[in-house]
Here is the input.
Amino acid sequence: MLLDVSKIEASYGASQALFGVDLAVAEGEAVALMGRNGMGKTTTIRAICNLNPPRAGSVRLAGTDLKGKPSHRVAKLGIGLVPEGRRCFPNLTVHENLVAAARPGAWTLDRVNVLFPRLAERHAQMARSLSGGEQQMLAIGRALMTNPRLLILDEATEGLAPVIRQAIWAAIRKLKAEGLSILVVDKTLSELLPVADRCVILENGRSVWQGPPAALTADLQDRYLGV
Amino acid sequence: MTLALALEQLLNGLQLGVMLFLMAAGLTLIFGVMGLINLAHGSLYMVGAFACAAVASATGSFWIGLIASFACAAAAGAIVELLVIRRLYDRDHLDQVLATFALILIFSEGTRWLFGSFPLYLDIPRLLQGAVALPGGAQYPVYRLAIIAAGALVALGLYLLIGKTRLGMRIRAGESDREMIGALGVDIRTLYTVVFALGAALAGFAGAMVGALQSVQVGMGEPVLILAFVVIVIGGIGSIKGALLGALLVGVVDTMGRFLLPQVLALFVPPSQAGLIGGAAASMLIYVMMALILAVKPRGLFAAAHA
Ligand SMILES: Nc1ncnc2c1ncn2[C@@H]1O[C@H](COP(=O)(O)OP(=O)(O)O)[C@@H](O)[C@H]1O
Ligand SMILES: [Mg+2]
Here is the structure.
């Protein structure tokens, strides 16, 4: 397994948010992390990256225990994070956002510019002046520039216009086809399920169901994902 | 009042401004990037001056002393950051002020213990001795012109470092979202140590250069520190550009005020009183200017967009 998350628990101060999450991503696999709002998807991702280090359980990346490793070490071990809310550096240009934390590997500026031609057009612009969709492309490109073994996408299409969403999904499908391992959180099942090899559902900070997208029946969807 | 005299005073003002910029650049960078108020910045200025004076008198070369000032202040900065400062980033400003004030006392007593209470003197290097003729006929010391040039070079270097290098990008990225730059694989703690040492080196460099104009003594950094704080408040905390403009403004306004105010007053009151009142008024001038600027731009001339 590339990523192996076992029984992690995490808290914000005194309030516990995760009570036991199990999940795994194999090499080349795309795993969908699902659940209603506030169920702990973002917290799970923050725990994996040691932004909120889990206080119990374990996270392993390609066999290496991530316990106690600062988040920059986790990133260097191969996790590329596209965080909720995008979090591009607003005071840097598009080009600077891409190269500031880049690490050598197969992904280069040229390849990112081919994946998202918009970024090439806007390379000298400040990130704060980009549209939401362009910022999302930038956040993905920025993560790819670190040449991760596992790409984590948290709500990458949230709040975007349909055309832009399609562009983002097309990019994600392309990345998967190239063999990149992906952990993805998204609300739109119609677009998420065709990409996913496996799904993991969280409820109240626990992983409660795992299986292939085909096994995610309307019943299960209604029970765990319906609003 | 002759044109030559005014020009000379203007250059003095620029030279003071350049010195203040070297101090303020580090101070504003450290505040902008790490959110830290560092009262001990004046101590690093003193460390630079003492290192230069001691090494110059041991080796006979001002230039080796100058390099030593840079190196010693950077090293002192890095050590202090590793031992003390990095425990302060997540604390509130009052804790930071208390802890860095304690550092002033430690640095001052440590320096007194090493070098004694008597001031050291630093000679102007032979290459920069003498004076050049200004237009209008007055003579102006080469050394002061060299300080202005050195300051301009440092400003240019800083601009390139912050604006064009990857280190600069990471510093700016850390200013807007330090958790995110860490999550992308940049070791923010090391970055902070580097920024702190860089700021310290600039302060030490300033101390060394001023050391040849004044005496090198314990406590020499604090008056400069106060002016440097005025500079970064005027310029907008966190902005290097603001620090440059603020430093030049404070340097020129302070120097020209001390020169011109007594003369202007002399038109209205007897000369003896004019000197007295003018001098007193001039020393308040930069604070009045600060108040006026803050009244119009409460966050300084170049307030950072975030924070
Ligand atoms: N910064 C925070 N401080 C305190 N509680 C938080 C914070 N962020 C999230 N939570 C809580 O943790 C739980 C899980 O949230 P989150 O992981 O953001 O859910 P999701 O991403 O699935 O919508 C929620 O109950 C939420 O209120
Ligand atoms: Mg979320």
Summary: Chain B touches chain A at residues 166, 169-170, 172-173, 175-177, 179-189, 305-306 (CB under 8 Å). The radius of gyration of chain B is 20 Å. DSSP finds eleven helices and two strands in chain B. Residues 46 and 221 of chain B are 6 Å apart (CA to CA).
